[in-house]
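Aggregate trends can hide what the representation actually does to any particular protein. For completeness, the protein is quoted in full, as a sequence line and a line of C-alpha cells.
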Amino acid sequence: MDKFMILDLVTSILGLSCVLLAARKSKYNFWIGYLYNIALFIMFWNRSLYASLMLQPLSLFINIIGHYRWTHPKQGEESASDSKALKVTSLSWRGRALCISAVLVLSFVWGWILRSLFPADPHPFLDTVVTVLILTAQLLSSMKKWDCWVCWIIVNVAQMALHLSVGHVFMPIVCSLYLLNSIWALVNWEKSIKKGE
C-alpha cells in the first residue's frame, strides 16, 4: 500500500467517525473533525484539488464555532433532554431559498476564479460546487439545523463522482457510507425537532 492509499484510508476513518458522531448529535464529533480537517488538507494538496484544499482552514474555523454553539446554547435554544446542549431546529423556507441562491452564485464565481488561477485542477466547477455545499452544510450543522443533512446528501453524491474521477480508492466507498449516514441523520434529527431536542 503506497503513502497516498494510507492517507486515503486514515482520512476515510477519521471522516466516518466524525459524521457518525455528528449524526448522533455528539459534541465529540468536533474533536475528530479537527484531525479530519488536517488529513483532508494533506490529501487534497497531493491531488491538486485546490478548492477543496482551501476549504480546510475555513472548515476548521466553522468547526470551532460549531463546537462552541453546540455546547453553549443561548436561553431558549436548550435541548429538552440536555440543558447544556443546543436543540435541533430547521431553516425557514426563505432561509432555504437564500442558501440555494448563495450556493449557486458562490459556486459559479469561485469556479471561474479557480479555473483561472489553478489550471491543474481537473474539475474546477464540480470542485467548487462540492466545496460551497460543504461550507453550507457545515455552517448549518454548526447551528444544529436539520437542513444540513439535505446538503450533506447532495455533497456525498457529488463527492463520490469527484473522488472517482481523480482515482481515490477509499473515499468513494466512504462517501457512500456518508450518504447512508446522512439519510439516517435526516430522519433522526427530524424526530429531535419534534421532541425539542
Q: What stands out?
A: The mean pLDDT is 89. The chain has one domain: 3-73+91-195. The chain has seven helices and no strands.
